[in-house]
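Extended Data, record Sulfurtransferase complex subunit TusD
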Amino acid sequence: MPEQTKTPAPAGVFTLVITGAPYSSQAPQTALHFARAALAADKRIDRVFLYGDGVHLASSLSTPPSDEPNLSEDWAAFLTENTIPGIACIASALRRGLIDKSEMQRYELPTSNLRAPFEIAGLGEWVDSTASRSRILYFHKGD
């Protein structure tokens, strides 16, 4: 039987995985700079996946001082303007108190705090990215 080779991912399609929290890591800001540059160079961002402390980026309750950028707001605007899905890992989100309306009802919580257009989903979304022929770039917290 002939050996099968996996077709390499196209150079211009990326999935971004952000694991560093805003304001305690450069990961979200560096990823946003990369994403803007990629689109300016006619590349495509397939999706942005938030994992671990990176899910804090999807909180509607973050309120940085007025002289600092609001990375959560900046990311939400970028994703909306460019019609890019922003996915927060459900396990990471729930563990860190990031709740959408569905989980709010499920756990009978008083409120939700997920910023649109982010959505909460399982690791299946990340697995889809690995199978989708996009290049996966990780933006870690950088210990």
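Summary. The radius of gyration is 16 Å.
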